[in-house]
Amino acid sequence: MKRVMAAATAALVLCAANGAAAKDIPAAGISAQELVGWLKAKGMKAEVTKSDDGSVYVSTADQGINFDIDLYDCDAGRCRAIQFSMSFDLKDGLSLSKANTWNREKRYLKLYLDDQNDPIFQYDMNVAPGVTYEALDDTFATWTGFIPSVLEYIDW
Amino acid sequence: MTRWIAIATAALVTGAAGGAAAKDVPDGGLTVQEVADWLGAQGYKADLEKVEGETHVSSAAEGVNFDIYMYDCKDDGRCSALQFSAGFDLTDGTDLDTVNSWNKANRYVKAHLDETKDPFFQYDVNLSPGGTYEALDDDFGVWLMQLPKIKAQIDW
Fold first, then answer.
1. A87 touches chain B (CB under 8 A)
2. What are phi and psi of A45, to 5 degrees?
3. A50 neighbors B47 (Cβ within 8 angstroms)
4. Which CATH number fits domain B26-153: 3.30.1460.70, 3.40.630.30, 3.40.50.300, 3.40.1190.10?
5. What is the pLDDT of residues A21-67, one digit of tens each?
6. pLDDT in tens, B41-66
7. Is residue B134 within 8 Å of residue A122, measured between CB atoms?
8. Is the pLDDT of residue B20 over 50?
9. Does domain A2-153 have CATH number 3.30.1460?
């Protein structure tokens, strides 16, 4: 019995350790409200915003830059993919050649120009199945880590 | 005591179920050999190729050759990020509008042109911390789903 107890206790400790290191996002995905809670727990401003077509997204900001988190592949309010997106209204826009150089040289973030040649930077992430909050934090750090290079690249 | 054992057993079961649903990628990420093994186990070509001292995995699916490059690697050979990349040698190349419209309309995969106007499509994925094989499988599924769309975009 003592041996069983020891093994069971070890398992408990192991499970607890795993839980702390890598808390799972539910298999059905994350909700907009949970994203807001996750951002607010980091001390960031965040709110659920409704777009014209009725879908919801999360508005937030970091380093003085506003950006959105759009939710995709949703079912009953839980979404299995998200997209970080930031756009900039430039006076003269950007050239396609400059956008191409970004997409050639940088990892993770794709850049495209809209009809006014304004740049939009986006980064997509699957958040289910098999995704942990630790991985979400890591991807988010990648996104926010890119903000200074984005600003420098477009002379913001 | 009985109650304690019951709780501990429940934890064991939960721990085991969690492990089966989402096998963790090791701390620090994957080695290039482990990526080749993972790909090969799914029946895909997975050749290791060395270019300028860096080893990557060469594979193919949907009639498209693609490579997997390892990033953020440590001395023990474990890498915390990878990039799926497919390049196409076109007779006349393509134009910047074509890649811009790809980057505008599609999630996950970014496109660029090289110096000879040949298009490249790339998808970056973080592996660690907090990554699981289930999430990697899901990300690879995204890549496979984009390949037919990529071919259509460039008339391949």
1. no
2. -75, 145
3. no
4. 3.30.1460.70
5. 569 999 999 999 999 999 999 999 999 999 999 899 999 999 999 99
6. 999 999 999 999 999 999 999 999 99
7. no
8. no
9. yes
A118–chain B nearest CA distance, Å: 12
Looking at this predicted complex, what is its ipTM? 0.87
Nearest to A102 by CA among A116, A88, A115, A83: A88
Gap from A131 CA to chain B (nearest CA, Å)? 6
Three-class SS state of B128:
coil
Would you say residue A85 has pLDDT above 50? yes
Taking the Cβ of residue A150 and every Cβ of chain B, the question of whether any pair is shorter than 8 Å is answered with no
Separation between Cα atoms, residue A61 and residue B74, nearest integer Å: 32
CB-CB neighbors (< 8 A) of A96 in chain B: 96-97, 100
Q: How far apart are CA A85 and CA A111, in angstroms?
A: 10
Residue A57 corresponds to which tokens in the numbers above?
């997204």
